[in-house]
């Protein structure tokens, strides 16, 4: 029975050669087909997606890098619902997201794909007020692009306030929510503040550690849940699962923001409820802390709060160590016999394999956890320049210009050296942007001794 059916099906599917070649060209043209054609094809259904209706001119052959699902492919999804709102404020609340997303993934054959991450970052639409701010933002963005390219992560960078009343640090909520809806293929949305630098290009997010959690934050559970300190966590870098829980959480978080009339009242509530809070301003981070404490069963228990590595690290404790860290990594690679293989030149595309091998070499010699931490000499995964305000130019007066401006340049060069290595270059130093070509067997050859 099965054989007969498949034979029959095989016969049925054997299209005349002429038709199939037309189909190929028609498919290419379809990508750019006008709405009328799309509508007609949609009615024809998935059984005959390549039949070109009368009156439609085939403008092929068109160069398309990969087959793109045409407008007629696939069943209706949540995107076809005119009530779907990308707005974090004032739009219709989105419900049943987990089922909608699962259905979308199933219909696109992506149900069992590995977990994907979309990084979201952004900055203000206007030019920076601070001197050199735009150039710094460009370099911060380039750093994120580099990391994402090496790790197969897509980057969404916003230069628009999707909800104008959600100003400053509140702006991330509408942008993260919109990215979640626009990227149902992503299991995680990774918000990274514009002023955070990825300083370990060899480190990958340890996603398996986050099974059972929906939100990942850098912080100290004791500070948050026992001391109720709003400085017990950092809201500038977080990983949030693409699920209904997260949409509900973002809704509730947004409700404490400046788009809502209760915002001013929240400022007073937060000041009273949290420690180390000395003003009446409701900021995103104090609001987040409050939510976790207030409803720990619903929110807190799904939050991975830890300092196991520098998921985001405070820059002032890091920038002074970067030269020492670079020197230790270089020495480890130079000395380890096993490093000969990992020193081999390779395509950027192979980065992750070499990164894993390099980490294994370094792990044996350089103290500290993968991804860096407050002790040890491992590379910090993320160095966050909280309070340096590179775009606005008004840094927190507790910081010197050397630690902020000098620190940012050093951290960017430190990261860039890891990227440039695949191109055969490095900076003369973390303070000198001149590029030097690398000897073939760097760093063994760089040591100037023969082995
Ligand atoms: C930067 O490095 C280059 C190459 O080593 C050197 O010639 C140049 O003098 C350095 N610049 C500064 C300002 O130190």
TrEMBL record:
<dbReference type="InterPro" id="IPR029044">
    <property type="entry name" value="Nucleotide-diphossugar_trans"/>
</dbReference>
<dbReference type="GO" id="GO:0005768">
    <property type="term" value="C:endosome"/>
</dbReference>
<feature type="transmembrane region" description="Helical">
    <location>
        <begin position="29"/>
        <end position="52"/>
    </location>
</feature>
<dbReference type="InterPro" id="IPR008630">
    <property type="entry name" value="Glyco_trans_34"/>
</dbReference>
<keyword id="KW-0735">Signal-anchor</keyword>
<keyword id="KW-0808">Transferase</keyword>
<keyword id="KW-0333">Golgi apparatus</keyword>
<keyword id="KW-0325">Glycoprotein</keyword>
<dbReference type="GO" id="GO:0008378">
    <property type="term" value="F:galactosyltransferase activity"/>
</dbReference>
<dbReference type="GO" id="GO:0000139">
    <property type="term" value="C:Golgi membrane"/>
</dbReference>
<dbReference type="Pfam" id="PF05637">
    <property type="entry name" value="Glyco_transf_34"/>
</dbReference>
<keyword id="KW-0812">Transmembrane</keyword>
<keyword id="KW-0472">Membrane</keyword>
<protein>
    <recommendedName>
        <fullName>Glycosyltransferase 6</fullName>
    </recommendedName>
</protein>
<comment type="similarity">
    <text>Belongs to the glycosyltransferase 34 family.</text>
</comment>
<keyword id="KW-0328">Glycosyltransferase</keyword>
<keyword id="KW-1133">Transmembrane helix</keyword>
<dbReference type="GO" id="GO:0005802">
    <property type="term" value="C:trans-Golgi network"/>
</dbReference>
<comment type="function">
    <text>Probable glycosyltransferase that may be involved in the biosynthesis of xyloglucan.</text>
</comment>
């Amino acid at each position: 029975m099965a054989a007969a059916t498949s034979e029959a099906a095989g016969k049925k599917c054997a299209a005349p050669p002429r038709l199939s070649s037309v189909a190929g060209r028609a498919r290419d043209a379809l990508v750019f087909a006008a709405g009328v054609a799309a509508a007609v094809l949609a009615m024809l259904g998935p059984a005959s997606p390549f039949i070109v209706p009368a009156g439609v001119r085939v403008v092929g052959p068109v160069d398309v890098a990969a087959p793109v699902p045409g407008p007629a492919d696939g069943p209706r999804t949540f995107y076809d619902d005119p009530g779907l709102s990308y707005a974090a404020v004032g739009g219709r609340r989105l419900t049943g997201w987990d089922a909608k997303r699962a259905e979308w993934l199933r219909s696109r054959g992506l149900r069992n794909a590995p977990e994907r991450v979309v990084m979201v970052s952004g900055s203000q639409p206007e030019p920076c007020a601070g001197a050199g701010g735009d150039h710094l933002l460009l370099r911060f963005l380039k750093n994120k692009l580099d990391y994402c390219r090496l790790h197969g992560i897509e980057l969404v960078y916003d230069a628009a306030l999707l909800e104008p009343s959600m100003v400053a640090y509140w702006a991330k909520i509408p942008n993260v929510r919109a990215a979640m809806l626009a990227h149902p293929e992503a299991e995680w949305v990774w918000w990274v503040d514009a002023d955070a630098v990825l300083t370990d290009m060899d480190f990958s997010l340890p996603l398996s550690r986050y099974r059972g959690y929906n939100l990942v934050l850098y912080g100290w559970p004791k500070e948050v849940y026992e001391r109720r300190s709003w400085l017990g966590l950092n809201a500038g870098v977080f990983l949030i699962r693409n699920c209904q829980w997260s949409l509900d959480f973002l809704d509730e978080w947004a409700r404490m923001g400046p788009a809502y009339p209760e915002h001013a009242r929240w400022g007073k509530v937060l000041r009273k409820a949290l420690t180390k809070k000395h003003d009446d301003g409701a900021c995103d981070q104090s609001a987040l802390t409050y939510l976790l404490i207030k409803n720990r069963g619903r929110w807190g228990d799904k939050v991975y709060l830890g300092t196991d590595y520098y998921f985001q690290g405070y820059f002032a404790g890091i920038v002074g160590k970067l030269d020492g860290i670079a020197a230790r990594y270089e020495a480890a690679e130079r000395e380890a016999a096993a490093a000969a293989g990992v020193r081999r030149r390779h395509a950027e595309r192979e980065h992750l394999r070499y990164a894993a091998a390099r980490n294994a070499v370094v792990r044996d010699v350089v103290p500290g956890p993968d991804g860096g931490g407050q002790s040890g000499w491992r590379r910090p995964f993320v160095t966050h320049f909280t309070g340096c305000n590179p775009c606005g130019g008004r840094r927190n007066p507790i910081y010197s210009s050397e630690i902020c401006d000098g620190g940012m340049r050093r951290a960017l060069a430190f990261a860039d050296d890891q990227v440039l290595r695949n191109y055969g270059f490095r900076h003369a130093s973390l303070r000198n942007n001149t590029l030097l070509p690398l000897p073939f067997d760097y760093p063994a050859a760089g040591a100037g001794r023969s082995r």
